[in-house]
Amino acid sequence: MKTTIAAILGAGLLLQTGPPTNYKGLEITPLGVERAQNVALLDCPPGSNTQRGNARPGEEFAVVSLAFKVTPAFKETIVKKPVLTDATGKVFNTSVAIIDPGSRPEYQCSFPFRVPAGTKVASVQIDTASINVASLDKK
Amino acid sequence: MEIDRRAFIATLGGTAAVSLMDSEAKAEALEHYMEEQLDEQAAAAQGQAPQNPTVAELEAQIETRNYRRGVGNLFVGGQGGKVKRLEPMPKKPTLQDFFRLRFQPANHVLQSATRAMKTGMTEEVILACLLHDVVQSMIKVDHGWWGAQMFEPYIPEKSTFAIRYHAALRFFPDSDAGYEYPDLYYRIFGQDYQPPEYIAATYKMVRNHKWYMEPRLVTVNDLYAFDPNAKVSIEPFTDIIGRHFKSPKEGLGNDNSPSAHMWRTLANPDAPL
Known about the structure:
The complex is a heterodimer of chains A (about 140) and B (about 270). Chain A is mainly beta and about 140 residues long. Chain A has one helix at about 1-15; strands at about 20-25, 25-35, 40, 50-55, 60-70, 85, 90-95, 105-115, 120-125, 130. Chain A has one domain: Immunoglobulin-like. The longest helix of chain A is centred in the N-terminal third of the chain and has 15 residues, at about 1-15. Chain B is mainly alpha-helical. The chains are: A mainly beta (about 140), B mainly alpha (about 270).
C-alpha cells in the first residue's frame, strides 16, 4: 500500500514538471517556480557560495528551478544567462550565470529573477531555447 | 555543538589566514564563532530570521574594539589575535609577489576574476575583478578609490574606472545587469543603512557614464566569489597581467610613480613612521 501511495505521489510530482528542452546537447527540464524575498546566490551548476540577495519592498524573487542533463552531443561552450518573460511579455534578468555546464552529468539549478510582487511568469529563455514555466507558477 | 570546520575556517579568511594565528587567537575565534552559531540556531528554533543589527547598534560597538573597522587587514590581528612577522618582499617586487606575500588570502578576488573569465568578460573587466579588493590589505574604508589610485599608473583606464566605482555601485541593485543587494550588507552596514551622499552622487554619475558596465560587472562577479570550497589560483591570469599590467622594471614601490608609496606601505607595514 505504502509503495502504491509513494508511486502515485511520485507520478504526481513528475506530472508537475514540464517537458525537457534540448539546447546544444543540454537537456533542460523545468522543475518549479517559487517565490522568495531572500535567495541564495549560487551559479549553475551550484557551488557553495555563501552570499544571499534581497528583494526590495514591492518586489520579490521568482525562483525558477531547472534540471540539466548533459548528453553526449554537448560540447563545452559559454552558455548565456537565462532570461524570464512574464505573462505580459516583459523580460527580467537573473544574476546567476551558467558556468562550466558540462562539468557534471546532471544537476539542478535555481535562477532567481527579481520581479514586481505578484508577477505571473510565462517562460524562461536560454539563448534560442524557450522553456514554458507558466503551468508551474503557483501564483 | 557540531562545528562545520570549513565554514569556520572560511569566516577567518581561509586556511592561509588560520595558519598565521597563534593558539590563543584560534581559541578565541572558535569561541566567538560558536556563540554566533548558537544565537542563530536559537533564533531559528523560535522561527525567527537571524536579526541584523541597526546602524545605531553597529555604532555602539565602536568602543568595544581595539581597532577601527576601516583598517587594512595587514595592520590588525585576525579575530582579535596578534599580528605576525611578514616575509620580506623581493628587491624588485612584482604584482604576483604582492599576491603571494601581502594580499593573502586573495581567494575572493581570484574567484571573482575566474568567474569573469569563465563568463566571457573583457580582459579589462577580468583584471579589475582580480584587483578590485586587494587594497583592503592596506585600508578598507573607501577601498574603491584607494585601490584605483594604487593601480592607476599601471593598468588600463577602464580597469581603473571599474575598481574606483565598484565600491559605490555595490549599494545599488541592478537586476538588468544581474546584481542584487547582498544580504551581507545588512549585517556589516546595518539593516537601515543608507549610503552617504557622496556615494549616491557617484552612483548617479556612473549610472549615466558610457563605461557604467565596467564597475557594474565587478559588482556582479563580486557577489558570486564567496565560496569557501572554491579552488582558484593566479596562474590563469598570468597572460592578462602580462598584457595589461605595466610592471615597473625597478619593482613596485621603487618606481617613483604617484602611488609607489602605497606599494611601499604594503611591503613594510611595520615601519613606525
